[in-house]
Every structure is written in C-alpha cells, then in structure tokens.
Amino acid sequence: MNARNRQGPPTAQQLALLSAMSELWHAGRYSDAARLYDRSPDRTLEATIMRARAYLQHDDAPATIALLEPTPKGNDALSGCRAMVLAQAYAQIGNYDLADLLFDDAAAIALQLSDAALDANVAYYRAVRFLFERSTNAARELLPRIRALPTAGGQLRALYLESRIFDQEARHRDQARVIIELLTRIDPNSEEHMEIRAWSTSTLAILAREIYIPEACSQIERQLGGVEWPADFNERRFQALRAVGWAYALRGDYFNAFRFLRQCSKYATSDAWRAIAAAQRAELARCRREPTWSRQELAEAEEYAASVDWGTIRDDARLGLLLLSELFVPIDAARAAYYRAQFSEHENICAPHFYRDDPRLTALAQYSSAIVDLATGHEKLG
C-alpha cells in the first residue's frame, strides 16, 4: 500500500514533513514545499493535499488529479478538503459536472461537521469555478457565504473574488477600487496572504497602465517593497513592475518608468519576456528622443528574441513580436516584416495578462500589420 494511504497515527517523520511543508506553504513558497514532499518516502494525506495544491498553483490540474484520485475517501474535514481540491482541478480543465459533484461532497462534509472554515473555502473555490465558466451572477451569489467567515483571510478572499467578478464584467474602475481596499489590508512586511497580494498587485498595476487611478502607484510600490516575494510569484512580480513602469511613463515620470522597466528584467521567467522588457525600454527611449539609447536596448531585445522558439509561445509573450516589428519600421522595413510574419504563423494566442476576450489583442495585431504594410509600400493594405 502507498505510504500516503496508511491508516493510523502519523509517524514522527510524517509530522516533521507536514510541519516543514506547512511553514513553506504559508510563506507562499509552494515549489519548495513540493520539493520536500517529492523527496520524502513517507507522507500523510494532508501533505499529499498540499502537494496537489502546489500543482494547481502552477496550472497542472492533470497532475493534481493523478495524485489525489488514488487517495482514500472519508467523511472528515481532510476528506472534505481532498474533494474540494479535486473539484478545483476538474474545474480548471473544464469538467464542470464532475467538479460540481465533488464540491457537493465537500459541502456536505462541511455541513455535517459544522465546519464554517471548510464551508467558506468550498464556496470560494466553487465561485472561482463559476468564473471559469463566465457565470458571474452565480459567483456573486456565493459572496455572502465567503464573507461569513470572520477572519482576515476570509474577508480578503471575498474582496479578491469580488475584484475578479468585476474584471469579467469589464467594470475596471470598480475592480481597481476593490483591489486598493484589499491591498490596504495586507501588510507588505508579512509573509501572509502572498498569493492574493501578488495577484492583486500585478492586476492593479495593469489597470493603472490602462486607466488613470491616482492612488494606484503608491499602493503598488508599497506591496512591491517589504518582504521579498517568493520565486513562485516571479511572473506576477515581472508583470507588476512592467505595468507600473508604463503607468509612470504615461504620467510623464520617465525616471520611474525606466527604473521599473529595468528592474522587471530581473524577474522575467523566460527569454521571450526579457526580449519584451528590453524592447519596451527601447520604445521608451525612442519616446524620449534618445536614438542611441533606443538602439542599444533594441539590440538586447533582438539578442533575447533570437534564442526563443516563438512557435511554442502561446501566451501574451508572443505579442513581443508585434512590438519588435513596430520598432523596426523606421529602421529596417524588411526586419519589421520578418517579425510580423513570425507572429502571423500562430495568431491564436491566450493572453492571461490582458482582460478576458479583450478586443485590444486583435487591435494590436491589426495596428502592427498596418504600419508594417505602410512601411513596405502596401498603402492600400495599410
């Protein structure tokens, strides 16, 4: 029998593993907690659930399902948590019917045990499942159950969920207002609530890049300071720094704009994003009428871009090809056409750092095509 399926009290080794994993988990160091689990031959169901949730943090629902499905069912709180995490995984891959059955199982256990914390958690993750299906009204109906848990974490989750609902409804000023309220409640010098802190900070930065929110930049900088974000959140930190840099640029503060656009490269998770960061610094320098500086940054962007297999890029990092094509239009029209052609080979991208179903993705591609066509003499197409 697998070690994680053994009955009976946990061994000293299991307790030590669980304690170490819990400490790392609460600090937002999900990958470190997962590595501890993977190296241990003797595990409890609670540790296994934490490992499964780490897979979910990295969008690996199939691995979550493969790990948890063989574990034993039951009627205790841990079994309710198991059902809830499995439901999250099935919702993430779009199997909503099975997700709903598992959420029902978890909710029934919470009711049987009068476990308010489990009930609020089930309501929260079921609401997220509804957002996957774009059912904002169904998600909003669960907000009272989430708010019913009178803890700081419960209230933050309710605000976090509300901000995501506003996002899907394209009510972005309302979304920004809720995120600012949420972030004022989070101490940046604490390791608590790291997931919500990272998501909310990066989302507010993206909003501040798109619409004028006077109080946003100070709150973003407050959260980017304090305790260093764990490596699991490097992508979020990169996006936050990049977006707040442009928020400052659009306000005419070029010193802070370049400072953040330079700093974001430190947290880039791939050469594609490093290429984008350098290309955007080149764009900023061009806006400042600094051609030599702009060409230096553009050369760095090309160096990173040359190492990327762009055919495998399906997220919004692929938009870096559009930016490169635009930057080369006044310098080398053929080079601009080359980057535009690379983008055109695989235009069906998913862009998680833009709003869902955002028409700006199509607009960006059309704009880039137009200026490249004009530069290469195709005036009618342009």
List the helices and strands and how they pair.
Blueprint lengths: L11 H15 L3 H10 L5 H13 L3 H8 L8 H16 L3 H18 L2 H17 L3 H6 L1 H5 L4 H17 L3 H13 L9 H17 L5 H9 L9 H16 L4 H11 L6 H17 L3 H16 L13 H9 L4 H12 L15 H16 L7
Helix pairs in contact: 1-2, 2-3, 3-4, 3-5, 4-5, 5-6, 5-7, 6-7, 7-10, 10-11, 11-12, 12-13, 12-14, 14-15, 15-16, 16-17, 16-18, 18-19, 18-20, 19-20
Polypeptide structure, described:
With 382 residues, the chain is mainly alpha-helical. The chain contains 20 helices and no strands. Helix 7 runs parallel beside helix 10, helix 16 (271-287) runs parallel beside helix 18 (320-328) and helix 18 packs antiparallel against helix 19. The protein is elongated. The chain starts with 11 loop residues before the first helix and ends in a 7-residue tail after the last helix. Mean pLDDT is 89; it is low at 1-6.
Give the beta-strand count: 0
Helix content: 55-70%
User: What's the pLDDT, averaged over the residues?
Assistant: 89
Structural class category: mainly alpha
Please give the radius of gyration in angstroms.
23 Å
* Shape by Cα distribution: elongated
Kindly estimate the percentage of residues that lie in beta strands according to DSSP: under 5%
Main beta sheet strand tally, sense and closure: none
- The ordered H/E elements are HHHHHHHHHHHHHHHHHHHH
Q: How many distinct helices?
A: 20
Low-confidence stretches: 1-6
Tell me the span between the first and last alpha carbons: 67 Å
Quaternary structure: single chain
